[in-house]
Amino acid sequence: MADSVLSLQNLDVGFPGMTVVHDLNLDVADGAFVSLLGPSGSGKSTVLRTIAGLLPALGGRVALEGRDITTFPPERRNVGIVFQNYALFPTMTAFENIAFALRVAKKPKAEIEKRVHEVAAMARITDQLDKKPASMSGGQQQRVAIARALVTGSRVLLFDEPLSNLDAKVRASMRQEIKRLQTELGFTAIFVTHDQEDALTMSDVIVVLNHGKIEQIGDGRTLYRKPATPFICEFIGVSNELAPQLAARLLGSEIKGRSFVRLEDVMLSATAGIPARVKHVEFLGAYSRIDLDVEGHALSAMLIGDPLPDPGSTVPLAVRPGAAHIFAEAIP
Ligand SMILES: Nc1ncnc2c1ncn2[C@@H]1O[C@H](COP(=O)(O)OP(=O)(O)OP(=O)(O)O)[C@@H](O)[C@H]1O
């Protein structure tokens, strides 16, 4: 593991009289892609804005490359920010957008020219420098926003939900583009999102926040396969929560606590399955969602390919062995 470039130590973030996230500890390796993932209001943006210095920390420390920057103003922190919808200045050309922070810092003209051309070449937008944002594609605008964030020499880039207003297809290609630039240019990324696909597709590490607390930190596969809490199990992927009687029937023994089964782990042609009535079949192209009634309990399954069961028919249902996620906490 590379050395930690950014370190949050016992960090409390929030607003006067209101702590949003308490006692956050996180070490980010140099060159890592880290997502802060969580539902609306979980505190992701507040953490990001505190790292950027746009909000003062309420307690604890922020360290960048070993240096305590907790009380530094934003312009002295050497972190770049890519905002929601990129927030490019519409009346300025790409060149002027990228040069903005250097101009504010009153750098000499020749240095600004040189530096803007360097980062534009890295982001492969040299041919776009004279254009204004409105005449660039979304992908080109994103590259300008990343070049603007890198121009002052920042090696850590903070992304504040940059993809939030894009449709699914464009979003997928923008993700690939961000990931490609991050890998090629080697910067460290802290990416705020409420979208699990953003986090799963791009991140080395995902930090899941809920109600101001870290629920779990891990790579996408670990979060998906070994969720630490019921919240993670329901937030990442799609799961059925099994009622206690159904859990006992399907899992073969009485379960103390809460149990979940992912839709793809519900099998509908098991040799020794429990009869389940097919209520509804939803064809979604690559897969189909089947809603079932099992001894009075609702359960859903996901099937890839054909044949699909007919609504009203009865199918033998079982849970893939070992696939249930069981949490020994009280049922709410
Ligand atoms: N300026 C503010 N003053 C007081 N409270 C705020 C302020 N901005 C946000 N909050 C509160 O802080 C909490 C966390 O908000 P935050 O924006 O960090 O959440 P988030 O996880 O980024 O959500 P979203 O995805 O909706 O932006 C919320 O309860 C919110 O109401």
UniProtKB/TrEMBL annotation:
<dbReference type="InterPro" id="IPR003439">
    <property type="entry name" value="ABC_transporter-like_ATP-bd"/>
</dbReference>
<protein>
    <submittedName>
        <fullName>Putative spermidine/putrescine transport system ATP-binding protein</fullName>
    </submittedName>
</protein>
<dbReference type="Pfam" id="PF08402">
    <property type="entry name" value="TOBE_2"/>
</dbReference>
<dbReference type="GO" id="GO:0005524">
    <property type="term" value="F:ATP binding"/>
</dbReference>
<keyword id="KW-1003">Cell membrane</keyword>
<dbReference type="Pfam" id="PF00005">
    <property type="entry name" value="ABC_tran"/>
</dbReference>
<dbReference type="InterPro" id="IPR003593">
    <property type="entry name" value="AAA+_ATPase"/>
</dbReference>
<dbReference type="InterPro" id="IPR047641">
    <property type="entry name" value="ABC_transpr_MalK/UgpC-like"/>
</dbReference>
<comment type="similarity">
    <text>Belongs to the ABC transporter superfamily.</text>
</comment>
<dbReference type="GO" id="GO:0015408">
    <property type="term" value="F:ABC-type ferric iron transporter activity"/>
</dbReference>
<dbReference type="InterPro" id="IPR017871">
    <property type="entry name" value="ABC_transporter-like_CS"/>
</dbReference>
<dbReference type="InterPro" id="IPR027417">
    <property type="entry name" value="P-loop_NTPase"/>
</dbReference>
<dbReference type="InterPro" id="IPR008995">
    <property type="entry name" value="Mo/tungstate-bd_C_term_dom"/>
</dbReference>
<feature type="domain" description="ABC transporter">
    <location>
        <begin position="6"/>
        <end position="236"/>
    </location>
</feature>
<keyword id="KW-0813">Transport</keyword>
<keyword id="KW-0472">Membrane</keyword>
<keyword id="KW-0997">Cell inner membrane</keyword>
<dbReference type="GO" id="GO:0055052">
    <property type="term" value="C:ATP-binding cassette (ABC) transporter complex, substrate-binding subunit-containing"/>
</dbReference>
<keyword id="KW-0067">ATP-binding</keyword>
<dbReference type="InterPro" id="IPR013611">
    <property type="entry name" value="Transp-assoc_OB_typ2"/>
</dbReference>
<dbReference type="GO" id="GO:0016887">
    <property type="term" value="F:ATP hydrolysis activity"/>
</dbReference>
<dbReference type="InterPro" id="IPR015853">
    <property type="entry name" value="ABC_transpr_FbpC"/>
</dbReference>
<keyword id="KW-0547">Nucleotide-binding</keyword>
